[in-house]
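User: My collaborator sent over this chain with a note saying "see what the structure looks like." That's all I know about it. Can you take a look?
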Amino acid sequence: MDYIANTLANLAAESAFSTMTYKEVIMIVVALVFLYLAIVKGFEPLLLVPISFGMLLVNIYPEIMEEGGLLHYFFMLDEWAILPCLIFMGVGAMTDFGPLIANPKSFILGAAAQFGIFSAYFGAIALGFNDKEAAAISIIGGADGPTSIFLASKLGQTAILGPIAVAAYSYMSLVPIIQPFFMKLLTTEKERKIKMEQLRPVSKMEKILFPIIVTIIVSMILPTTAPLIGMLMLGNLFRECGVVRQLQETASNAMMYIVVIMLGTSVGATTSAKAFLNITTIKIVVLGLIAFSIGTIAGVLVGKIMCVVTGGKINPLIGSAGVSAVPMAARVSQKVGAETDPSNFLLMHAMGPNVAGVVGTAVVAGTFMAVFGVG
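Assistant: Without extra context I'll predict from the sequence alone. Here is the result:
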């Protein structure tokens, strides 16, 4: 009888119920809400499902992120910047840079959205973060999860890498919720109805030369951007050159999805109640939201200016796509435009600023690395 009692007592002591606090319960509820948004509402499930499940796991079994735990080793690949670079290769292999090549003015809109990053940087300084912490936090404003992880790891900010990554990926996933409010607030119905001219055809030679030229120019000016820009453009070269179809398919499918699983679950697993529910994390999440909002606003406002300058040929809605959330932000531009005029097709026009934003965010990250002497 004593043996049975001791066995039951040991089982009870080893269960999560014996150590769980209200903070873990809060984080589990948050994880379930994220799962609901991903599965039922369809908010970027490829990102939110692994992130929220990692969040669920670590708040039930914290040891999964300690040395020896499975997700600890996944997270080490984040810290070493391996997974973010592989994500960029996959993004490049899936991305058509044709709209950007056909309309180089899109670079202006992609650059405008980077205002969110610099607003977050100065905001973080004002809230008491040091220079490197502020730089790592600021990339959230570009809604670019891989670049956020890459920069935080390069600047040695592993202590806040988890909250930064979760905030960046959360805002990437919540683009359809956050952006439309500002887009409608800052534009008139007449502006939202503007139909843009069809983009010119882009030759195969242009598409092949683009990743090579961008890699050379950007990496020569800012060598610190070479890992991100290089992998992005290598993936795109796989896509466009036409002679390595197997590599393109692997980079954009099997490899990409494996990396997303590993990165998503490990990022979610950084949100243990002990590490996540504190003032520093709250500051980072709020800064990220403000920065992302400012990036959206700046993109739309510059889009309005370009609309006036071009005599009404540019729909300001595509300016919001200048953040790096590819292709979610471009889809939102299309959705908001179609709500006003169902016959308006803005997706391809919005893809130009969207992919320009990816390049722009990587360039800003490289600039911060150069400023702080990090290679």
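A starting point for your reply to your collaborator: The chain has 20 helices and no strands.
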